[in-house]
Specification:
70 residues; mainly beta; five-stranded mixed beta sheet; 54% strand
Length: 70
């Protein structure tokens, strides 16, 4: 079960940190980070599963026009 969700750098105040959403399970045993890539020309969203970066930490990249804030 998901315990919390955290939005990271959604207003792009840090150019070195991509906008992301982090999800955590109960007891913070697992984390999923979804990096958001803005592509205004994308007609279909693409979800790339990177995998388990370290024990309990998973990573995905979502490329979509829906990831654009403008």
């Amino acid at each position: 079960l998901q315990e919390w969700t955290r939005w990271i750098n959604m207003n792009v105040t840090d150019a070195n940190l991509p906008p992301s959403i982090v999800y955590s399970t109960l007891n913070n045993q697992r984390y999923l980070t979804v990096q958001l890539i803005c592509d205004p020309s994308a007609s279909n969203a693409q979800l790339q599963v990177i995998g388990e970066m370290s024990v309990g930490e998973y990573w995905m990249i979502l490329t979509s026009r829906c990831a654009c804030w403008n």
